[in-house]
Design brief:
coiled coil; mainly alpha; SPX domain-containing protein
Length: 180
């Protein structure tokens, strides 16, 4: 089964409020198809030189020259936007979980003489654990999506895009086992 199909199924099955927080795999894939067309056409050769170092992707080709195609610049911009979306969501959920965990610890300490209250707190701890597992799976799934695009870039052997892709992708917090 293709990755996008698997991702679509998992997005539909997950928590409704998380659906728009997943990697926009289709957008990245569309941009890659503009960079590396499959129909035998040559990739666009129009080069741009930008005044904005982050927009011109001066680290993309390792030479610092800043000469890259508009399609590569757009790809890196989309990738950066997606990484920011993913990282923000992970950080927000982790912060919420830490706060909830502290509240549950406090409630458990206060309810040590009430079996019913301890049972309620215990169920909420199990729910929190389940949410953390979902968050870990979310992170892994999005990492896989970026890996799928990374593999395509590698297969095309386009060093400028590949370098941009890896430097942006591996700097992301959500890729560094943030849920462990």
């Amino acid at each position: 089964m293709k990755f996008w199909k698997s991702l679509s199924i998992l997005i539909e099955d997950t928590l409704p409020e998380w659906r728009d927080k997943f990697l926009s795999y289709k957008d990245l894939k569309k941009q890659l198809k503009l960079i590396y067309p499959k129909d035998g056409d040559k990739p666009p050769s129009k080069r741009l030189k930008s005044e904005n170092p982050s927009a011109d992707c001066s680290d993309c080709n390792g030479s610092g020259g800043g000469d890259v195609t508009k399609e590569v610049i757009d790809f890196v911009r989309i990738l950066e936007d997606e990484m920011e979306k993913l990282n923000s969501f992970i950080v927000e959920k982790e912060e919420d979980s830490v706060i909830k965990w502290k509240e549950l610890q406090d409630r458990a300490a206060e309810a040590k003489d009430s079996k019913d209250e301890l049972m309620r707190v215990g169920r909420e701890i199990v729910d929190l654990h389940g949410e953390m597992i979902l968050l870990e799976n979310y992170s892994a799934l999005n990492y896989t999506g970026i890996g799928e695009d990374s593999e395509e870039v590698r297969q095309e052997k386009r060093s400028s895009t590949s370098s941009a892709f890896h430097s942006k992708g591996h700097a992301a917090a959500f890729l560094h086992d943030s849920c462990a």
